[in-house]
Design brief:
Elements lengths: L23 E8 L3 E2 L8 E8 L2 E5 L2 E5 L3 E5 L6 E4 L3 E8 L12 E4 L2 H10 L11 H15 L6 E3 L4 H12 L7 H8 L3 H12 L3 H18 L4 H7 L5 H12 L3 H4 L3
Antiparallel strand pairs: 1-8, 2-7, 3-6, 3-8, 4-5, 4-7, 5-10, 6-9
Helix pairs in contact: 1-2, 7-8
Protein name: Helix-turn-helix transcriptional regulator
GO molecular function: DNA-binding transcription factor activity; sequence-specific DNA binding
InterPro entries: AraC-bd, Homeodomain-like_sf, HTH_AraC, HTH_AraC-typ_CS, RmlC-like_jellyroll, RmlC_Cupin_sf, Tscrpt_reg_AraC-type_HTH
Length: 263
């Protein structure tokens, strides 16, 4: 396992661009296998989106997950890695910072509606040096307007700064069904349960219980997307019953697993 709880995967190369040929630039990739990038950063914004498959972005601040109909907005100069599931149809947008000065300087998961999806799909078919003053340039501007208005969704998992808590979180990322209580973890980490609870809330904004539940539900997205049985996913993620898993999923995402992936 890597420090992010992912299996050690083949790496795909990060493109080396001295500059963007246009303020909005697109890359298309078909990734048959699960792959990851090395840690890297770039002086422009990146939108990582998958028509099919699930994307994960890991940074020092936390992990971000994008199943279809969601995308991950990665600010300029943020060191990160991108992990894709098998069979991912990836569409990456690179955006000049001057063109996206309206965006907050942090990683976010955005909802991609049907119009934005089709705009991304069409934009990725344009030549690299498209006519900025013509129809292609107007299409790029409409796409940027759509991204500016896109709704942020809670498909992220913050990581703590405290070294003891980070060790705990890495272990749970590697094994989401680990059911040890915070009291049991306190004995292993040499700190009181009260101290760990206080630090967890301070560093992540979540209680230990809420953080672990979010971790498990985010870990469930990839197997659910590829069609695994809900019962099998629930057990793998540490739930004792399918009904408990579905109830937690609905509480977190506002939909059942079937409704979440229906589109």
């Amino acid at each position: 396992m890597s420090p992010n709880g992912q299996n050690l995967l083949p790496e795909r190369a990060v493109p080396r661009l001295p500059h963007l040929p246009r303020p909005l630039y697109a890359r298309t990739e078909s990734l048959a296998r699960a792959v990851s990038t090395p840690r890297h950063s770039h002086p422009w914004v990146q939108l990582s989106y998958a028509l099919e498959g699930v994307l994960h972005v890991h940074s020092a601040a936390g992990s971000f997950v994008a199943p279809p109909q969601r995308a991950i907005w990665i600010p300029a100069d943020l060191e990160h890695e991108v992990v894709s599931s098998p069979g991912t149809e990836m569409r990456s947008l690179y955006i000049d910072c001057a063109t996206s000065a309206w965006a907050p300087p942090r990683c976010r998961v955005l909802e991609i509606d049907n119009l934005s999806r089709e705009l991304i799909r069409r934009f990725c078919e344009l030549p690299v040096e498209y006519d900025e003053g013509g129809a292609d340039g107007r299409l790029a501007q409409v796409l940027l307007d759509q991204l500016r208005a896109a709704r942020e969704v809670g498909l992220s998992l913050p990581l703590p700064q405290d070294a003891r808590l980070l060790r705990l979180c890495r272990a749970l990322q590697a094994q989401p069904d680990d059911s040890r209580s915070l009291m049991q973890w306190s004995q292993a980490l040499g700190a009181s349960e009260k101290t760990l609870s206080r630090l967890f809330l301070r560093d992540t904004g979540l209680t230990f219980r809420a953080w672990r539940q979010r971790l498990r539900l985010l870990a469930a997205l990839e197997p659910l997307q590829r069609g695994d049985r809900v019962t099998d996913v629930a057990l793998t993620c540490g739930y004792d019953s399918t009904s408990a898993f579905i109830a937690a999923f609905r509480q977190q995402f506002g939909e059942t697993p079937g409704e979440f992936f229906r589109d």
